[in-house]
């Protein structure tokens, strides 16, 4: 529904959550401005998966043609045991997923997905006014002298007024602080190595060729750590995420560069296929401390609201952080798109009512996977593996 009166929404943060919200709001006829602190709008060089819940939203935003050009589709999700690579469970994806959920399970390079959404925000032929984007624009203060016209103030003194301000500024959200929401940040004690391994190196070695013979989304479970890998850009890269106990240095600095050898060393004694794969990482291995947020329902105050990691940062142990931000974006646009400016506070409260409980459940489930994925060998691990076998193919996404 297009509102009878268009009004202005300012979004702090041009990540996947902020840009999806910008596009969804644009399509409802609202005038949107995105403020991004980075000098260039983009994403880290890594992969991302969208399960049907997020794919459905992106397709609903009219992005099918563009997503079909950039996605890679896994045929199954495979869960393997650390020591010998034995398959614990296998869930068919591909067509089986589309048949069951009427939406696909897709993988992308993050930069490609970000670019597709960004270009749709700026496409002059699209519905609604084109989104205005300001890079190198860091929001540090909020002026709410007129509560119905919040003003985002930048570190160089620029002022951006709008009828609504959305804080989509990530796990260390400044907007969250500025509306006085509780400090819910938690350190998980874990960190993630991320690497992109060229597919041609994988294909050239008989020890790793199996990785490109069948496109799969794979999780290896082991004591205190797990490993995720999948192909992106049609097999041009293998995306690897390796989650292990965090070092003090990474906990303090949040992000540090790492070497391929660090990655190999993090999985001592694992099945030979693991070091064979990880040793092919050539460059750009990054290591990131994993922070998340405690579940909390304070997402809005008057004409200001939070979205994505700013309100429900979660461990990446269900690959749902960006996907939940996309769900936020869709619901936010439905609510704001259905009211005139006088109805904004109520629309934002309805947005929170519709989203906070579900996102909180996904936060908790992701946290539970920290234990579930990392059992040492023994009775709990055997019970888990039996449970995975029983629920094979029964994901509810
Ligand atoms: P962000 O992506 O953090 O974007 C916030 C933006 O705000 C940034 O561009 C930042 O520069 C900007 N910003 C911050 N402060 C300011 C300021 N003061 N002024 C202006 N701009 C500001 N999720 C999935 O759905 N699928 C996956 O497969 C998946 N895999 C993951 C793997 C790993 C290893 C990790 C760590 C996470 C993964 N996630 C995944 C989670 C996902 O990356 C995040 O949940 C998602 O990026 C959050 O999006 P966001 O837009 O809320 O925040």
Unreliable segments of 5+ consecutive residues: none
Structural class: alpha/beta
Shape: globular
Helix proportion range: 25-40%
Bound molecules: flavin-adenine dinucleotide
Biggest sheet: strands side by side, in what order?
Answer: 5-4-13-14-15-12-17-16
Major sheet description: 8 strands, mixed
Q: Mean pLDDT, rounded to whole units?
A: 94
Number of strands: 19
Distance between the termini: 27 Å
| Count of DSSP-assigned helices | 15
What value does the Rg take, in angstroms?
21 Å
Tell me the β content.
Answer: 25-35%
Structure commentary:
The protein has 397 residues and is α/β, with parallel strands linked by helices. It has 15 helices and 19 strands. It has helices spanning 16-27, 52-60, 64-70, 94-101, 110-122, 174-178, 199-204, 210-213, 248-253, 260-265, 273-278, 309-312, 321-337, 344-373, 379-390; strands at residues 8-12, 31-35, 47-50, 76-81, 87-92, 106-109, 132-134, 139-143, 151-154, 159-161, 164-167, 185-198, 216-222, 225-232, 237-245, 255-258, 285-293, 300-301, 304-306. The strands form four sheets. An eight-stranded mixed β-sheet has the order 5-4-13-14-15-12-17-16. It has a six-stranded mixed β-sheet with strand order 7-2-1-11-19-18. Strand 14 and strand 15 (237-245) form a beta hairpin. The longest helix has 30 residues, at 344-373. It starts with 7 loop residues before the first strand and ends in a 7-residue tail after the last helix. The protein binds flavin-adenine dinucleotide (FAD). Residues 12-18, 35-38, 48-49, 138-139, 168-170, 174, 192, 194, 241, 288, 308-309, 316, 319-323, 325 line the site of flavin-adenine dinucleotide (FAD). Flavin-adenine dinucleotide (FAD) is lined by residues 12-18, 35-38, 48-49, 138-139, 168-170, 174, 192, 194, 241, 288, 308-309, 316, 319-323, 325.
